[in-house]
């Protein structure tokens, strides 16, 4: 199975889905380490509970973004990951660490990209008045939330939704979306070739709908 490194800043519910799928034999992979910019992240607790090695570094202990990223990714590199999954990792990544790992790093983002990049995506969706929202998994490139999209899941926006209600509806779909996407990546079926996502060696005309 492939070796996965997970980067996470928060509660780690997406990480938990991968942990549980591996434990249940539904994903043939190993989580080789979990890495965080927040020592108190719930994701680290979840990893320790599953006996996964963890590393957390504090950005304020470093002089620059590049110095922090170099340090964090020197730890990531020691676990020799085939795939790096950003699962609620909330820090911008320096261009050089991203470029060195193109095609090997993915991110889950809570919107139907290219709509609503950045933060507060559920508020952005409500403010825009869209009737459909969702989540995307994309290859990470140096453009924030701008890398090629692999797969998406769609949810309706309902009358009376606030950001929390919408976030909760999206999150229930993020979990199976991330798992299914990691699965096709771990099976080697999805790749990034010359900036284009391929499935079974054919270019994807549109993101997979999962
Ligand atoms: C998820 O909704 C994920 O899509 C989002 O953070 C949440 C993490 O939840 N990611 C981003 O906003 C990335 N910019 P989790 O910690 O429970 O997996």
UniProtKB/TrEMBL annotation:
<dbReference type="Pfam" id="PF00551">
    <property type="entry name" value="Formyl_trans_N"/>
</dbReference>
<feature type="binding site">
    <location>
        <begin position="90"/>
        <end position="93"/>
    </location>
    <ligand>
        <name>(6R)-10-formyltetrahydrofolate</name>
    </ligand>
</feature>
<dbReference type="GO" id="GO:0005829">
    <property type="term" value="C:cytosol"/>
</dbReference>
<feature type="binding site">
    <location>
        <position position="107"/>
    </location>
    <ligand>
        <name>(6R)-10-formyltetrahydrofolate</name>
    </ligand>
</feature>
<comment type="similarity">
    <text>Belongs to the GART family.</text>
</comment>
<dbReference type="GO" id="GO:0004644">
    <property type="term" value="F:phosphoribosylglycinamide formyltransferase activity"/>
</dbReference>
<keyword id="KW-0808">Transferase</keyword>
<comment type="function">
    <text>Catalyzes the transfer of a formyl group from 10-formyltetrahydrofolate to 5-phospho-ribosyl-glycinamide (GAR), producing 5-phospho-ribosyl-N-formylglycinamide (FGAR) and tetrahydrofolate.</text>
</comment>
<feature type="active site" description="Proton donor">
    <location>
        <position position="109"/>
    </location>
</feature>
<protein>
    <recommendedName>
        <fullName>Phosphoribosylglycinamide formyltransferase</fullName>
        <ecNumber>2.1.2.2</ecNumber>
    </recommendedName>
</protein>
<dbReference type="InterPro" id="IPR004607">
    <property type="entry name" value="GART"/>
</dbReference>
<comment type="pathway">
    <text>Purine metabolism; IMP biosynthesis via de novo pathway; N(2)-formyl-N(1)-(5-phospho-D-ribosyl)glycinamide from N(1)-(5-phospho-D-ribosyl)glycinamide (10-formyl THF route): step 1/1.</text>
</comment>
<keyword id="KW-0658">Purine biosynthesis</keyword>
<feature type="domain" description="Formyl transferase N-terminal">
    <location>
        <begin position="3"/>
        <end position="181"/>
    </location>
</feature>
<dbReference type="InterPro" id="IPR002376">
    <property type="entry name" value="Formyl_transf_N"/>
</dbReference>
<feature type="binding site">
    <location>
        <begin position="12"/>
        <end position="14"/>
    </location>
    <ligand>
        <name>N(1)-(5-phospho-beta-D-ribosyl)glycinamide</name>
    </ligand>
</feature>
<dbReference type="GO" id="GO:0006189">
    <property type="term" value="P:'de novo' IMP biosynthetic process"/>
</dbReference>
<dbReference type="InterPro" id="IPR036477">
    <property type="entry name" value="Formyl_transf_N_sf"/>
</dbReference>
<feature type="binding site">
    <location>
        <position position="65"/>
    </location>
    <ligand>
        <name>(6R)-10-formyltetrahydrofolate</name>
    </ligand>
</feature>
<feature type="site" description="Raises pKa of active site His">
    <location>
        <position position="145"/>
    </location>
</feature>
């Amino acid at each position: 199975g492939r070796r996965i490194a997970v980067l996470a800043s928060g509660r780690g519910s997406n990480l938990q889905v991968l942990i549980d799928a591996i434990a249940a034999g539904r994903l043939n992979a190993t989580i080789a380490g979990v890495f965080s910019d927040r020592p108190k992240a719930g994701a680290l607790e979840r990893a320790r509970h599953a006996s996964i090695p963890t590393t957390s570094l504090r950005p304020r202990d470093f002089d620059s973004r590049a110095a922090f990223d170099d340090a964090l990714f020197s730890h990531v590199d020691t676990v020799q990951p085939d795939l790096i999954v950003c699962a609620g990792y909330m820090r911008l990544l320096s261009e050089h660490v991203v470029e060195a790992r193109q095609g090997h790093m993915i991110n889950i983002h809570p919107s139907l990209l290219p709509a609503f990049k950045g933060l507060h995506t559920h508020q952005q969706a409500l403010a825009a008045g869209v009737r459909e929202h969702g989540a995307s998994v994309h290859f990470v490139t140096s453009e924030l939330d701008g890398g090629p999209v692999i797969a998406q899941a769609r949810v309706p926006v309902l009358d009376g939704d606030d950001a929390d209600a919408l976030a909760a509806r999206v999150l229930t779909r993020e979990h199976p979306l991330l798992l299914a996407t990691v699965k096709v990546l771990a099976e080697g079926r999805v790749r990034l070739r010359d900036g284009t996502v391929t499935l079974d060696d054919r270019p994807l005309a549109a993101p997979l709908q999962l």
